[in-house]
Design brief:
Layout (H helix, E strand, L loop, with lengths): L12 E3 L1 E6 L2 H26 L5 H6 L2 H26 L4 H25 L16 H12 L26 H11 L26 H10 L1
Antiparallel strand pairs: 1-2
């Protein structure tokens, strides 16, 4: 009697063919072998599609239409195999279901191992070494580090600065400020500016005293 739920019994369910009934341990083993064959075929075809495998004849001729037709045929086979083990699982026999998923997982394990082997491993950073320096370059760098003071290769530096730099009063802002302050009567003579203004409270100009007055003004 057929059951529409999961079970472990041998109830005589049909497995793809009318002559194959799961009604004993022997028929269960035969059905399991058929399930394994279908599942492994599906995994192999899936791997072939993922790697774009094609016969050598098609690779030599390089016909786009033929290669596409070949890949479509592989996809047809893969889909057919998937429908077959789906029908086997619809018997609701727990044993056949376990055989199906175990075989698919084992096939996927083999595919993963092959993919890992084909994938180039990243370069080990510890194995990458810098090229050795030539002897001439090494000697020149060692000489630069050991020699003191270091040799000057560019433009020689200027000598030490002079103690005092002369700036013309016309170009000096300080001198201009002192001159303006003197003209306004705010301050007197400074280090940069000497005034020759005639004092307001001084004596008036006297005839014949020009030399004396000039000497007095110049002497101040």
């Amino acid at each position: 009697m057929w059951k529409d739920h999961m079970h472990f019994s041998f109830l005589g369910e049909h497995v793809l063919f009318p002559s194959l009934h799961v009604e004993s341990a022997w028929t269960f083993i035969v059905a399991s072998l058929l399930t394994v064959l279908i599942c492994l075929s599906e995994r192999v075809l899936t791997y072939a599609i993922s790697k774009h495998w094609s016969p050598r004849v098609l690779r030599i001729r390089q016909s786009c239409v033929r290669i596409a037709a070949w890949r479509a045929f592989l996809y047809w086979l893969v889909t057919f195999n998937r429908l077959l083990y789906m029908l086997i699982s619809m018997t609701f026999n727990v044993g056949l279901i376990l055989v199906t998923v175990t075989t698919l997982a084992a096939g996927q394990f083999v595919i993963e191992v092959l993919d890992i082997r084909d994938t180039p491993s990243p370069a080990d950073p510890e194995s990458i070494k810098e090229p050795l320096l030539s002897a001439h370059l090494y000697d020149s760098r060692a000489h630069e580090h050991n020699s003191y003071p270091p040799e000057q290769t560019g433009r020689p530096r200027s000598k030490s600065k002079p103690d005092r730099i002369f700036i013309h009063p016309n170009e000096s802002n300080i001198a201009r400020a002192d001159a303006a302050a003197m003209e306004l009567g705010i301050s007197g003579d400074t280090e940069l500016v000497k005034g020759n203004n005639y004092p307001l409270d001084g004596d008036t100009w006297q005839l014949g005293m020009g030399r004396d007055v000039a000497r007095e003004l110049l002497g101040r």
